[in-house]
Amino acid sequence: MKHIWTPWRKPxxxxxxxxxxxxxxxxxxxxxxxxxxxxxxxxxxxxxxVLNLYPYNNGHLMVLPYEHIANLDDxxxxxxxxxxxxxxxFVGIIRRGMSPAGFNIGVNLGRAAGAGIDDxxxxxxxxxxxxxxxxxxxxxxxxxxxELLDETYRNLRALVEQYPPPC
Length: 167
Ligand SMILES: [Zn+2]
Description:
The longest helix is centred in the middle third of the chain and has 22 residues, at about 75-100. A hairpin with a 3-residue loop joins strand 1 and strand 2 (about 45-50). The protein has five helices and five strands. The chain has helices spanning about 25-30, 35-40, 75-100, 135-140, 145-160; strands at about 40-45, 45-50, 60-65, 100-105, 125-130. It is α+β, with helices and mostly antiparallel strands. It has a single domain, classed as HIT-like (HIT family, subunit A, 2-Layer Sandwich), CATH 3.30.428.10. It has a five-stranded antiparallel beta sheet.
C-alpha cells in the first residue's frame, strides 16, 4: 500500500539523518504548525508519534525516531529507550481515551517482514476490540477514514496535552 504523507518538522535534532524520498523524513522536516494536518501526536526529543493514515484499526499510531535509520539495533541506546518509553506511554493514552480490549504492538524490519517503508524504522501500536477484524475493509469502502482520523487525532492529542509524555 502506498503512503502519501504530507510532511512536517524543521531541522531539530543534532546529527539527524534524513532521507529526501522518505515520507517520515518529509513529515519531520515540516514545521510544527502542520502537526494537526499530518496527525502528529507528539514530538519528543529523539522520537515522535503519528497516527497511521492507513490504519489497521481506529487509533493505529506509530512511534519512530527522527533519524532515517532502518534497524532497531542501529539506533543509539537513548533513542531505543525513548522509543519504548513512548510506545508504553501511548498504550496508556489509547487505553484511557479509547478503552480497547487489547493491543497489537510491533515492528516489521525489512520488506520480507512486511514493512511498507523499510528504511525508516517505526513501531506500530494498534488498539483492538473484540470483533473488530473487519474494520479496515469496511472503512476503506465507505471512505470514512478522514473524519475518523480527525476525531481520533483530536481525542488523543487532547490526552497528550493533559498527560505530558515522558520523552
Ligand atoms: Zn526517513
